[in-house]
Amino acid sequence: MSSRKSKSNNLIQAEYLSQVQRILRERFCHQSPHSNLFGVQVQYKHLIELLKRTAIHGESNSVLIIGPRGSGKTMLINHALKELMEVEEMSENVLQVHLNGLLQINDKIALKEITRQLNLENVVGDKVFGSFAENLSFLLEALKKGDRTSSCPVIFILDEFDLFAHHKNQTLLYNLFDISQSAQTPVAVIGLTCRLDILELLEKRVKSRFSHRQIHLMNSFGFPQYLKIFKEQLSLPAVFPGKIFAEKWNENVQSLSEDRSVRDVLQKHFNVSKSLRSLHTLLMLALNRVTPSHPFMTAADLMEANQLCSMDSKANIVHGLSVLEICLIIAMKHLNDIYEEEPFNFQMVYNEFQKFVQRKAHSVYNFEKPVVMKAFEHLQQLELIRPMERTSVNAQREYQLMKLLLDNTQIMNALQKYPNCPTDVRQWATSSLSWL
Amino acid sequence: MAYCPTRLRTRQTYSWVDKPLDRKLHYQTYKEMSVKIEGRLPEIDLQVGQFVLIEGDDDENPYVAKLVELFEDDSEPYSKKRARVQWFIRFCEVPVCKQHLLGRKPDAQEIFWYDYPACNSNINAETIIGHVQVVALAPDEVIPMDLKNEKTFFVKLSWNEKKFKPLPPELFAQLDKLQEGNPRCQKSVEAKTKSTESPSWTTAERVVKRIESRHSTSKSRQTPSHPVTPRARKRLELSSFPRTHNTRISQQTSWASLESPGRMKRKVAFSEITSPSKRSQPDGPQNSSPALRTPEKAGEIQQCCAEDDKKPSPDGCMILRTRVAALKTTETSEERTLTPIKGGQKSSVVPSVILKPENIKMREAKEPVQDEATSTPHRIRRKSSLLTLNRMRQQLRFLGNSKSDQEEEEFLPVAKISASDSEEEEASTPPLPRRTRSNVSRNLHSSMKSSLQTPSKTPKKTPETRTPRHATPRIRSRNLAAQEPANVLEEARLRLHVSAVPGSLPCREQEFQDMYNFVESKLLDHTGGCMYISGVPGTGKTATVHEVIRCLQQASQANDVPPFQYIEVNGMKLTEPHQVYVQILQRLTGHRATAHHAAELLAKRFRTRGSSRETTVLLVDELDLLWTQKQDIMYNLFDWPTHKEARLVVLTIANTMDLPERLMMNRVSSRLGLTRMSFQPYTHSQLQQILVSRLKHLKAFEDDAIQLVARKVAALSGDARRCLDICRRATEICEFSCQKPDSPGLVTTAHLLEAVEEMFSSSYITAIKNSSVLEQSFLRAILAEFRRSGLEEATFQQVYSQHVALCRMEGLPYPTMSETMAVCSHLGSCRLLLVEPSRNDLLLRVRLNISQDDVLYALKEE
């Protein structure tokens, strides 16, 4: 009886857990405008007021939202647009055009996209767009027709704004800003970029037409706030179906945030990056360890996740190398030490390796040269070494100059964890003069 | 209009018909001239007082004029046969910028008495192409729409380059006298033997052929009584030339004239009793347009004719002997004029006979309707009237709708519209063939929408779908009116917006005056010239030019300066430098052409003498964008004004003062000349004056605040846009900071300082201050590495070793390579660092994008 009861309890818990996973994953992966904004209230107010003025008064504006990656630029604008669209009279009155510098790689594509999003392609007719020039004059004419009081305002959102600045002559930007500075259809041009030097990218006539409003998002919160965000991101909403489970989960999150080791983990993570996106990655990794048999997140999960996050990717590759390849890398390291970062070639590495083998003939098998060459090429394929110049066909591969892409500390750390490393090799790694 | 004979195709010989009337020295006046066209038997007689077409720039639309005098001038070396004419002007010849002065849509065949003495009326007689018919109408008369004679023009207004005026009474009387005189002339022509009739038929055939090649099918089909032989019809349908602008307008206006609810109702009732048409007839709507004239309509025409009779002229219109006239009679004219024509027609033309009796019958509709019509034409009439009825109803809807509705409609998908249309139609005429209906809806909305409904099968669709070129695109209008400013700050913000056009331009009086004098002198002298205007952005170059043009336009309204045409192109609004030709041509004439063709047309236009040409003022903004390797565009732009005939004034604007020397070849800069003007950046007192003038009678700013912002901006750039933007931002800050939303205080210096700070402060230091611990220590490591090596550049590996050492010193956990790499690329994406692409891995070179001192300062603060 009791076993059955516990089984059904387990089932319910599994059900809840899958829901928890769904909710939290959505929260971490999607930039849903439902979540709260952290520490950007001033900027948010600036933006929303600006958008409202465009929507209500028909005032043209241009603004740049600048902040490093992961600082919530898109989140901010999405929030603002959502709030704007909730007001019915504004949502009817506003047209939106979303462009992305990575998608609209030149002005021609961007113009087509604008025409499409403004639903003007009907006007162009069956003829699937004329030339670029026709398109531009068509759109400009369309935008010129309007005036402040009677036309529907258009909000242009240019994601990856800096890429638009690389378009030829910056035609699109000039025209958008020019419209925003003249008595035509009211527009709000909102650029999102992570480059702090964005204004230097703009041509001077384009720059003059830009209103120079900048909204900076700088992740300007400290660690205590970071902890709060951590808690908020993990806690379940009040509407969660299993009340008791949710309470338990939230209690656990609370206790986690007070746990010392968890704080250390978070502090370490915070030190590396303040971006919320990297926090999401961490939490996602930890969340994946939650199972019905292990229903609540523990400090160990977070520590594990942090380890995964901060792992050195190259160290992992080194762990998978053969002893011969390790030997070659050690030989290269010694060459680097001797010749002070000068490039080397295969022959030098081979000679160095031969010296070692002759001294310690008993511990390492003496491979033939072609085999060593093969190992060398494998290292090159793994991009642990890199040719200085491009490989030419007729050059002798043995004498091609190479550089090692591993740091000494990386090699030593990797060796320490390398499974079944021969002692001689390890000794040789620490000192090229160990035989003395 | 249909005639566009070019000299290339037909050789014409001109000869005087009779003895000179009057003989002076080197000067003999004649009364009549005959034009002999090679290969055609009849000669065309041109008499003084007739209306003629004269070869012009545009083959499609030759000039229209009245012959005043024919004379031979021996003193002229080349062309001795001269003619003096009184010009008429077509709507399309009216400068585009002034077309709106008409205040309505022009009718297709409407022309204007050209009352402009400066225009050269002495022409070479050999440029005359042929006759036309010109009908003078009183201003309140409606232009009869059933007259589809392309050779008939209607004059209602005169145009004197400034405004449209009704014809002066004496002129009207004079024209009417001509009309009276002309039937005689025509009769004499008609009275000639049959040989005259058949040649006129051959010329008509020639017309048809022309139409095939030049004109849209729909248009030519709108002339129903046109003698189209089956063979020709086939070709007509195949030809798919874009419909001209005029056609659409004429169509719309023609329907507009039918607007009358009573008749509409009648039509609906009419359609209800109609039996379902069995075979779909694609040509139906067009072919049957005369059949549309149901009794009432015909009655109205009758009335209109009657009104005509009461007016000084006994005839509703005059008929000159034209090439088509014999076949295409004017239906509004009196029976008396009609009869001989009818007779002539019956003898010559077969296809139009079917329609003709019907028309005549309808004209007599007030009298008891004759039942003699056979059932066949009757049925045709029913069915076709049904089709046209639908078209008409849609047109009525279209016209009747309020403007806002129309605009909204533009955004509805077509499917929806035609669905709603079909609902309506199904109520009254369910059995209508579907294809026709979609045709109809396309007819009406094609200019605004693409129709997705049916794949185009009928040949007439091809030209229709091309019309969007002329569509007037626009953003849909807002549903809710824009709010007006509620308080002082909002009002100030509105006035401070760069787009707000000030009544006057303060601080640019000198430049304004110079430029005004320059352009005015060119206008008065009827010459051309170039001017180069330079200045940094935001110094009011374009605004000043606009202001000058505005003032000149006002002056030309007041007759102080001759009228001129103003065109503006902007180098930045072109996709490619050569597009500038296309833009100029389009603004100038409304035509579209490829860049190459446009260049040729413009060169032709500016290098040859135009008969009635006003000066063109061309503003080229952002001139430096028109630079090409060959510099042919700049060369042309500056070369045209040097031609005497061009009458072109070119004003060019660019940012750099030394552009002509730096960028242009000698031959280009030499043509540009030395008329230069440079706009200096605004000084602080000028900026202050601008702000004060904008904020006149509006107490929103403290005086000190205005002075502060003026000084700040003047020190930075002297850009007026910046100044206005800062003030605008300051009003917002003031509004935010203010507690009471109703009565916000004045904008103080503090607010302005904040705004300036926000706009101009470098964000690098805040960015560093807000970056994570590891990022900061990485920056420190870079500084340390720079100090160690003494270079301003380091590889990532070197910085990494420094970084590891730093972290160890500061007690931070050991940073792995991957973490450090992520930090480095993060800083690189913000452009705090300049880094190479990350595939270089350890070897990528790192540089600081800001000075080391700034970094040190930012890191020291905490």
From TrEMBL, chain A:
Principal location listed in the UniProt entry: nucleus
CDD domains linked: AAA
Pfam families: AAA_16, ORC4_C
Domain of life: Eukaryota
Record flagged with keyword Nucleotide-binding: yes
GO terms, biological process: DNA replication initiation
Domain AAA+ ATPase per the UniProt entry, residue ranges: 59-202
UniProtKB keywords: ATP-binding, DNA replication, DNA-binding, Nucleotide-binding, Nucleus
Subcellular location: Nucleus
SMART domains: AAA (SM00382)
Function according to Swiss-Prot or TrEMBL: Component of the origin recognition complex (ORC) that binds origins of replication.
Subunit structure as annotated in this protein's UniProt entry: Component of ORC, a complex composed of at least 6 subunits: ORC1, ORC2, ORC3, ORC4, ORC5 and ORC6. ORC is regulated in a cell-cycle dependent manner. It is sequentially assembled at the exit from anaphase of mitosis and disassembled as cells enter S phase. Interacts with DBF4. Interacts with POLQ.
One function term, GO molecular function aspect: DNA replication origin binding
GO CC terms: cytoplasm; nuclear origin of replication recognition complex
Family: Belongs to the ORC4 family.
Record keyword DNA-binding present: yes
Name of the featured protein: Origin recognition complex subunit 4
From TrEMBL, chain B:
Subcellular location, record wording: Nucleus
Gene3D superfamilies (UniProt xref): 2.30.30.490, P-loop containing nucleotide triphosphate hydrolases
Pfam families per the UniProt record, alphabetical: AAA, AAA_lid_10, BAH, WHD_Cdc6
Keywords: ATP-binding, DNA replication, DNA-binding, Magnesium, Metal-binding, Nucleotide-binding, Nucleus
Biased composition (Basic and acidic residues): 206-215
Main location (coarse class): nucleus
Biased composition regions of type Basic residues, renumbered to the chain: 468-477
PROSITE patterns membership: BAH
Feature: compositional bias, Polar residues: 241-257, 272-291, 438-448
CDD domains (alphabetical): BAH_Orc1p_animal (cd04719), Cdc6_C (cd08768)
Domain of life, source organism: Eukaryota
Residue stretches making up the BAH domain: 44-170
Chain positions covered by the region annotation Disordered: 183-313, 366-388, 400-478
InterPro entries: AAA+_ATPase (IPR003593), AAA_lid_10 (IPR041083), ATPase_AAA_core (IPR003959), BAH_dom (IPR001025), BAH_sf (IPR043151), Cdc6_C (IPR015163), ORC1/CDC6 (IPR050311), P-loop_NTPase (IPR027417)
SUPFAM superfamilies: P-loop containing nucleoside triphosphate hydrolases
Job description of the protein: Component of the origin recognition complex (ORC) that binds origins of replication. DNA-binding is ATP-dependent, however specific DNA sequences that define origins of replication have not been identified so far. ORC is required to assemble the pre-replication complex necessary to initiate DNA replication.
Family: Belongs to the ORC1 family.
Assembly behavior: Component of ORC, a complex composed of at least 6 subunits: ORC1, ORC2, ORC3, ORC4, ORC5 and ORC6. ORC is regulated in a cell-cycle dependent manner. It is sequentially assembled at the exit from anaphase of mitosis and disassembled as cells enter S phase. Interacts with CDC6 and KAT7/HBO1. Interacts with LRWD1 predominantly during the G1 phase and with less affinity during mitosis, when phosphorylated.
UniProt-recorded name of the protein: Origin recognition complex subunit 1
Source species: Balaenoptera acutorostrata
High-level lineage: Eukaryota, Metazoa, Chordata, Craniata, Vertebrata
